[in-house]
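User: Structure please.
Assistant: Input sequence and predicted structure:
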Amino acid sequence: MSKILRNPASGEQCPRQDGFWQKHQQEEMVEAAIHLYGSEAATAAAYCALEAWTERRHSDYGFWFEVFLRLRGRVI
C-alpha cells in the first residue's frame, strides 16, 4: 500500500517518464534555439548539456543532448 520514495542526492534528478511530451518539448526547444542563436544553436544546446552534466542533472543533460543532436544535423 505504501510507496517508498527515494530522495535524489543534491543536484540529481530522476529521469522523466513522459517520453512523448519530452520529444515534443525538444522540438519546441530546437525551434527556439534556432530563432535565438541562429547558426550557433547547436553550440548553445551543447553548452546547456555540458552545464547540466557538470551539475549532475542527468535528466536535463539527456534532454539538452538530444536537442544538440537534432540541431547538429540541421543546416541553418
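The first helix runs from residue 19 to 37.
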